[in-house]
Design a protein that fits this description.
about 260 residues; Aminopeptidase; four-stranded antiparallel β-sheet; 12 strands
């Protein structure tokens, strides 16, 4: 694998020189160590990953909570099947459902028609959970990557008439339960940068990548989402208040104990 560092908004006065880190997955590379290092696949470039505040569920610690059981009880009418995307029929009806969902739930201009089609057809993802109602009509699609030993929950689209009726929560929960039943170790749920992302933390065993380790401390995650310092941009590992509160062993211990080893 190869790492690439793309410059982003330097600030010489604060001696801050940020980079977006990309990873190129080469033919002999396994997916598991890439995800474990905090990377997720880009939507447009096959085998290219970006480093982010990724969230995942450690399935060794996952079991159904009372909230999970409530979701299952309220969505009993739905059933799912797992289909390889190489065998999936991306029809005009599928495209319309997905486009209507994006327009209603997310907003216009976020995912265009070609971008939606690419999620299903460009080879970045390999499987899809198809959800149907009692009448056996398709009502939702959850596009995923499945590798040994992980599942990555990529994109979900469903009939907009079910928005607000727990179908979205059921779809994510269904993927997690499937992964648990099929002896996977982790389910990756995307990124956690906004308060609206906190629904992904409603599963036992959830943890997030903070740049140097996987953390189970949701108070830490909420602090990062709310912002370290509202008055000044600052690197995480230069924020003394953050280090004192969440890693009191100190920065030197963090640098010795954590991090992703890279061989040059």
């Amino acid at each position: 694998m190869k790492l690439f560092f793309s410059e982003f908004k330097p600030n010489y006065e604060d001696y801050s020189f940020p980079y977006q880190i990309w990873l190129l997955k080469e033919e002999s590379d396994l997916a598991d160590p890439i995800y474990n290092a905090g990377f997720l696949p880009t939507r447009h470039l096959p085998n290219v990953y970006y480093l982010s505040r990724s969230l995942r569920v450690n399935l060794n610690e996952f079991e159904l909570s009372s909230e999970n059981r409530r979701i299952l009880g309220k969505t009993q009418e739905f059933e799912s099947s797992l289909v390889s995307l190489s065998d999936f029929d991306y029809s005009p009806a599928v495209q319309k459902m997905c486009k209507d969902y994006v327009s209603k739930k997310i907003g216009e201009g976020v995912l265009g028609t070609q971008s939606i089609k690419g999620i299903f057809t460009n080879g970045i993802y390999n499987s899809v959970f198809v959800f149907k109602n009692r009448e056996k009509q398709p009502v939702g699609y959850a596009v995923v990557n499945i590798y040994d030993p992980l599942l990555q929950y990529g994109y979900a689209f469903y009939d907009q008439t079910f928005i607000g009726q727990n179908l979205g929560a059921r779809m994510m929960l269904e993927a997690i339960m499937w992964a648990k039943q099929n002896n996977k170790q982790f389910v990756y749920l995307g990124t956690g940068y906004q308060t609206s992302s906190l629904y992904k933390t409603e599963f036992r065993g959830v943890e997030f990548f903070n740049g140097f380790c996987w953390s189970k401390n949701l108070t830490e995650l909420k602090k990062l989402i709310s912002g370290l310092n509202q008055n000044k941009d600052e690197y995480l590992l230069k924020n003394e208040d953050f280090i004192d509160k969440f890693y009191p062993q100190g920065l030197e211990t963090i640098l010795r104990q954590y991090g992703t080893k890279v061989n040059f």
